[in-house]
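pasting for ref
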Amino acid sequence: MTELKEIENENFGYDAFFKTNRKKLGLEGFSIARVTAEYKGAYKVINQNGEFLAKITGKQMFNASSREDYPAVGDWVAITALDAERAIINGVLPRRTMIKRKYSNKNETQIIATNIDVAFVVESVDRDYNLNRFERYFAIANDGGVGPAIILNKIDLISEEELDSKLAQLKNRFRNTDIVLTSTITNEGLDELKAHIASGKTYCFLGSSGVGKSSLINKLLGENIIKTEEISLGTGRGKHATTNREMYFLRNGGIVIDNPGMREVGMTDTSAGIDSLFDEITALSHKCKYVDCTHIHEPGCAVLSALESGKLDEGKYSNYISLKKEAEYYEMTELEKREKDRQFGKFLKKAKKELKKYKS
């Protein structure tokens, strides 16, 4: 691959980090490409020579120990082109960042996207608006080394007074986070959003179904490339118009990834991300009497003291405890989980007996 082709790949986000790691892995003899979409058993990849439908080798499948060993949208991969449209993936370059979540009701990890620079967490001002949900997304972004930003969409649906109130809440809860207010109906905030997107950088749009992620990306693209659907009037919920994660390239050189809506954002082993997100609570915890303080009932707990005095927001504290418990449960071994579930079962059985005695 010539130096000219290296430069052209920079249009897709290729930089010194990937170039160095490609050399370390001895993959310089292969062409490289970026994964732009994932399908069942295949991937769409792109490089300076065009787009290919690519598959991994049987050896890679055999050696894979988890989902994280497979390519994901955002990855840089070494490929061998079979013809003008098909290719084989020979290896995955190390990831600089990765956003992942726990599958609902399963102890398995789902990779949302890799090699992301900024995660735009999108909520709409109507039924979807929830400060705790923002923090859930922030936790998985921070844990993967990705900086989050807020997009509050559909601002045309509420009054200026209501919008000011919500903006004040967001600024109070997320003091060092960029907040962009947008409407795809009135086009408010779209120029500001464009200004946040730099050439060669990759941005991932996260949020529930129906918050307007795809519509926003269509506006950034300047054409309706992504299919969108109306909100259900009966339930007020959005439909999953986006069914696959897919990467798009803007005219200004920015790279964006659209994601299917997520009703749940399960915590994986995100303890570090949670501690980073709730840095105020983390700082207070260093002043606690006990090193292993859970900040729930212990005497001499600096976190509880700040909560009682009103210095710490009650909603923020409650969400911190909830996310920490969820992350800790994910990190347990299966044996530990069974024992915890057994103890909880015994507790419920005893509680039912006590209740029965009380009623008698």
